[in-house]
Specification:
alpha/beta; Rossmann fold; 8-stranded parallel beta sheet; 9 helices; globular
């Protein structure tokens, strides 16, 4: 399903239709090639049994074993002494390749740009494709508000181990535009990837059918788990009920939303949670 997104840390799970993918949020569009280890041979919904699509939906008594980092015990941002004029409230979006991170970033920009002073930093390994996509689709009127980082290596390193490049880009945007809200989109990564709290205030993550019960920091510690591309679930035999059950177990019932960003479904809920986190952290004051 969907893949991880982060910064309240909100991981995005690629898609409900992705049996083996890590998109937290079954709402993934079919405009990308994804690893899928069963051959459908047709493009309509099917009702074949679990054995036919390569995975089962039985209740797992102990889904995942990553209970040493439960949602309730996740790292929380430290706002003591935080100067919002140096860097505005930061929303981190993460998740596997193809989970819909850039589509979600675009959708959020189109909504928040009317009510907030915002800017975006994208992360890619060797290109600036995500930045170029956002500029091409006019995510923000001033393209200078959308900046790119080429990590040159594992995407998770730039959002956790060495966050200096992202911090520098964010503080540069803050100095130029005085933003009250900043977005960071990580490069496509795995379930172990998670934002440093020194970088992100709110983290969002996304993934697929078996992803929630596989666990990992992206699933258990994100502030919001988004299962994207839910419109594809019927075509790949993915069960949203199974994903919700497993997500609740792995996240101690922490926030999990099911979306189809491409169709505009469920995005309002994401906006509401981000707005709530921003107001709680800053008192609703702009920089």
């Amino acid at each position: 399903m969907s893949k991880p997104v982060t910064f309240i840390q909100a991981p995005v799970l690629g898609s409900a239709a992705q049996g083996n993918s890590g998109d937290s949020g079954h709402s993934h569009s079919h405009d990308h090639a994804h690893a899928h280890d069963h051959d459908h041979g047709h493009n309509r919904a099917h009702d074949h049994g679990a054995q036919e699509h390569g995975h089962s939906h039985e209740v797992m008594e102990h889904p995942g074993q990553y209970f040493d980092c439960k949602f309730a015990e996740r790292d929380l941002p430290d706002y003591s002494g935080r100067d919002w004029k140096e860097r505005g409230f930061t929303i981190g979006i993460g998740g596997p390749v193809g989970s819909g991170k850039t589509a979600l970033t675009l959708a959020l920009c189109r909504i928040f740009r009317d009510t907030h002073n915002i800017a975006v930093v994208t992360n890619d390994i060797f290109t600036k494709e995500d930045q170029e996509f956002l500029i091409r689709n006019e995510a923000l009127a001033d393209k200078g508000r959308i900046r790119a980082i080429e990590t040159g290596g594992c995407p998770h390193a730039a959002i956790r181990e060495d966050i200096s490049a992202n911090i520098g880009a964010l503080e540069g945007l803050q100095a130029d535009y005085g933003c009250d809200m900043l977005f960071v989109e990580s490069g496509g990564d795995n379930l172990a990837a998670n934002y440093s709290r020194e970088l992100a205030d709110y983290i969002d993550v996304s993934g697929g059918d078996k992803i929630p019960r596989k666990g990992g920091p992206g699933i258990s510690q994100s502030d919001l788990l988004i299962v994207n591309k839910i419109d594809l679930a019927p075509y790949v035999g993915a069960s949203l009920e199974v994903m919700k059950r497993d997500a609740d177990k792995m996240r101690d019932h922490g926030p999990t939303l099911f979306t189809s960003v491409k169709l505009g479904q469920g995005v309002d809920g994401v906006v509401e949670l981000i707005n709530g986190a921003w107001k709680a952290a800053t008192g609703g004051h702009n920089a």
